[in-house]
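Feature request disguised as a bug report, sorry. It would help if multi-protein outputs had a clear separator. Right now it looks like this:
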Amino acid sequence: MRIIGGKAKGRRIFVPKGRIRPTSDMIKEALFNMLPSMEGKLFLDLFAGTGNIGLEALSRGAAKTVFVEVNTLFIEAIKRNLNTCGFDSNYEIVSAPVEKGLKLLGKRRDQFNIIFADPPYEKNLIKKTLHLLDGSDLISEDGIMIIQHSLREELEGDVGNFILTDRRRYGDTIISFFGLSC
């Protein structure tokens, strides 16, 4: 795994051994090619794991990335990867389950241009995560919500105020893009 674009391009990302499924470089490159410029954007990386996606956003110019992760082994990996990539500011690590992390960010009235969620596959967390975000002010009016999920997980169409705008398949992985309804 490596950073594929921006100022940290080529830096290797540490991935601890064990049960983790980091987004492949091929999927990550396709994802960031579909997104608008990261310059000045506020990026939220839910179920952050090693921080792979949030690190890429920082490398490409995001104003700030917030990583939400509960596993202490992965939090240490995020810290190590931030250091390896030379990022010493413009980020925050929220050490909490996603539900608690979202409540904390909501209380602070944080708002993000792009929210990326990669919940553990086949644990029924996709719709739960979308419902937690639905009705919150965490996503900006013109923001993008992205869910990475397994082909075997059903996610058909709109969920609450989130309108499905695009869906791409990469082997067993699906990337679903949502916008907010007016």
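(second protein starts here, but nothing in the output says so)
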Amino acid sequence: MPEPRLLIEDVLRPGAEIALEEGQARHVGAVLRLDAGDAVRVFNARDGEWRARIAAKTKRGMSVRVEDKLREPRATPDLELLFAPVKRHATDLIVEKATELGARRLRPVITQRTIAETVRTERLAAIAREAAEQTERFDAPEIAEPQPLAKALDGWDAARPLIYADEAGDDAAAPWGGERGRGRPLLETLADVPQGKLALLIGPEGGFTAEERRMLRGMSYVIPVSLGPRILRAETAAIGALSVIQASWGDWRGV
């Protein structure tokens, strides 16, 4: 069984002894039940991944001693996920799976139909960190503070295309909203998107309002897409779309 991985922002170099954060120490000692002398792997996006050992374990905390380098760092794709927070468990799932799927930044956005009242970014950061430790990536995604959708898009870098899942269409009486105004299939659309940097926007339960759709479609960098003939839950849409993006545009292509 491979050694546990710990994301540590301190400089990693041979012989360095680094105190673990309180939550990490608790997890390593109480959950993983590791003790002094046990091996772990430590990593960050700057210094790569290193072999280390637990140097000390006391009631006050735990420290590790860095030994030798195992891997050079590898950058995650420049991929952002903007998502409308939903119920707590579903939001947790979005953050966890987006981390596993290689998103570099996660940005909660408040839309007119967003139902989540509060978003605890510290808690989401902890979820992202744990997911990063388990999935062999070298960093945890940035977690931005929630913003209204219009504010999040204010001053947007037009060189970063923003793909958004638009299932509403323009005809409420037709199946899946009708054909007029619906986006092209995501996979087909990605073939025309330049490689480099990209963002994905997933709406709330109930989708975007007509006003929000008009705003989005009026922006030159926004690309509406369809995720198929079925209406997906928000968390399923995020996971499915990120998977397609990574397979077509991201780092899955090099695996």
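Even a blank line would do. Unrelated, but nice: The chain has two domains: 5-71, 78-254.
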